[in-house]
């Protein structure tokens, strides 16, 4: 995808860590108050996962106002090389099990995404295309509903779009939400969500994760074994206990709201009212180009939740909203499908070209 159209900038939240705990970071010039940090290439995702596939790659870091370092990888050109020219940047934001510590969706909306977009916008001098998958779409919906980022984006592509979760039919997600122990014992849950709790060298771990994926996201139709095996070697990454609690709340209650502290005084402290603020999708500006694609077999994006999402976007300009439904696709097919290039990425690229 990057080689045929644009310089590709990937936000890898799974590399986020507390600022004070990071080492071997070289300070670069800050942009608009943000601390831009250049990570030695030998220590980053570029060397471990991108350059060995023939792409050039640059490591970038942004320190957020709440003290986290976001690691970004930029692929400035395709395998054939060449210069970046004036091609618009694309920010790709992934799903849930790829980040960690004390934050939830609200912090992603308030800090991570705006500051990342600002960094790329200031660095390139151009508006961005946004591509989100799963949690990356939920973050975008929430930000757009607050009229954030809109003036710096050309368009937004939202794969496996997630806003409402009340009808999730994933057995694992539903069971976790109904009995989520993190709301009682956060320390044990933090460890259980960490990839470090598994022995990466044991074959049984891969089989276990394959079965967990089936229960969590539904039966994928078209997985490419060469891609899925690479993913499973690196998953699951750690995620924030608070974030999992937040998702569990939205599954149980069928709402799209900010984090509920389950204490009126604490909610008042954060929101100046006893209940958390909703993310109102009808407030999304109607003229931002949106491309939504969901799978008919996706256990995390139930048809009824998608219908509720689309109803919230009824006021959107008709020529600025594209909706694609892929009958047999589940959550993982969008990332690991052997036919995703033609089924998902070709129309996606056509959409981006339309809004250059």
From TrEMBL:
Domain Partial AB-hydrolase lipase, residue spans: 47-103
Keyword Plastid: no
Location of the active site: 134 (nucleophile), 298 (charge relay system), 331 (charge relay system)
Origin superkingdom: Eukaryota
Gene Ontology terms, MF aspect: hydrolase activity, acting on ester bonds
Signal peptide: 1-20
Protein keywords: Signal
Protein's UniProt keywords contain Signal: yes
An individual GO BP term: lipid metabolic process
Pfam families registered for this protein in UniProt: Abhydro_lipase
Family: Belongs to the AB hydrolase superfamily. Lipase family.
Protein name: Triacylglycerol lipase 2-like
Organism: Tripterygium wilfordii
Lineage, highest ranks first: Eukaryota, Viridiplantae, Streptophyta, Embryophyta, Tracheophyta
């Amino acid at each position: 995808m990057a080689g045929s159209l644009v310089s590709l900038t990937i936000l890898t939240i799974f590399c986020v860590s507390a600022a004070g705990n990071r080492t071997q970071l070289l300070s670069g010039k800050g942009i608009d108050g943000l601390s831009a940090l250049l990570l030695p290439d030998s220590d980053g995702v570029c060397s471990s996962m991108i350059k060995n596939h023939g792409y050039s790659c640059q490591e970038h870091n942004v320190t957020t106002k709440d003290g986290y370092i976001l690691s970004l990888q930029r692929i400035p050109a395709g395998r054939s090389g060449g210069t970046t020219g004036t091609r618009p940047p694309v920010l790709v934001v992934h799903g849930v099990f790829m980040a960690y510590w004390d934050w939830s969706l609200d912090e992603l909306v308030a800090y991570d995404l705006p500051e990342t977009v600002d960094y790329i916008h200031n660095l390139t001098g151009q508006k961005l295309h946004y591509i989100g998958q799963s949690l990356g779409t939920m973050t975008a919906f929430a930000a757009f509903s607050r009229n954030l980022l809109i003036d710096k984006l050309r368009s937004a592509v939202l794969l496996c779009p997630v806003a409402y979760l009340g009808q999730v039919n994933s057995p694992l997600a539903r069971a976790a939400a109904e009995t989520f122990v993190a709301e009682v014992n956060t320390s044990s849950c933090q460890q259980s969500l960490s990839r470090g709790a598994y022995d990466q060298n044991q074959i049984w771990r891969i089989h276990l994760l394959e079965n967990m994926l089936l229960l969590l996201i539904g039966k994928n139709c078209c997985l490419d074994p060469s891609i899925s095996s690479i993913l499973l070697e690196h998953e699951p990454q750690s995620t924030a206990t608070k974030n999992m609690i937040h998702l569990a709340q939205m599954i149980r209650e069928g709402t799209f709201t900010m984090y509920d502290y389950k204490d009126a005084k604490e909610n008042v402290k954060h929101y100046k009212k006893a209940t958390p603020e909703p993310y109102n999708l009808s407030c999304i500006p109607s003229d931002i180009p949106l491309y939504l694609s969901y799978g008919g077999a996706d256990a995390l994006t139930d048809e009824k939740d998608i219908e509720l999402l689309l109803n919230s976007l009824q006021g959107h300009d008709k020529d600025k909203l594209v909706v694609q439904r892929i009958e047999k696709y589940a959550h993982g097919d969008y990332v690991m499908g052997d036919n995703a290039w033609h089924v998902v990425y070709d129309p996606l690229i056509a959409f981006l070209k339309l809004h250059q």
